[in-house]
Amino acid sequence: MRNFVVKNPVGVTVLAGILGVMGFFTFVMYGMARNLDTMTTVMQKMGNDLTSMAEVQNTMGHDISSMSQDISVMRKSISHINEAVGQVSQNVSLMAGNVTQMTSMVSRMSYDIGRGAYSFSSPMNYMNNMFFGP
User: pTM surpassing 0.70?
Assistant: First the structure.
């Protein structure tokens, strides 16, 4: 082989070039393999994350269903509150009418109490006014 190297310097250069290219190709392949390993790890993590997301979405579906039922119950409660407020409104209007009536009754009662007090304080005048007019 020594004779080959000495006699063929071009062959040595070609062999060194081939070895250099093969070394560079090996280095590139090693880098690609490392990147593929990193990509595989990332894809595995992404798969786990997608599985977790699917579980969370399933739980979210149940939660939304429960919220929907709760909102339906709240809607019924608000409807009952609305009916109760309507009843209170009716009762207040009835009470307002009764207060007006009560005012006239209190006025009459005041007049009657005044007459009663007058009859006890001046019985003779009361009886005179009763029989003979005021």
Answer: no
- pLDDT tens for residues 69-98? 888 888 888 888 888 888 888 888 888 777
On whether the CB atoms of residues 119 and 126 are closer than 8 A, the answer is yes
Q: What percent of the chain has pLDDT over 70?
A: 87
Round to whole Å and give the CA distance between 110 and 8: 143
Q: What is the distance between the alpha carbons of residues 88 and 82, in angstroms, rounded to a whole number? A: 10
Match 């009754």 to its residue by tokens. 105
Range of the domain at 62: 2-132
DSSP 134: -
Counting beta carbons within 10 angstroms of the beta carbon of residue 38, is it exposed (0 to 12), middle (13 to 18) or buried (19 or more)? exposed
Average pLDDT over residues 8-29: 84
Q: How far apart are CA 90 and CA 98, in angstroms?
A: 12
Per the CB < 8 A criterion, the answer to whether 16 and 23 are in contact is: no
What's the length of the chain? 134
Q: How many domains does the chain have?
A: 1
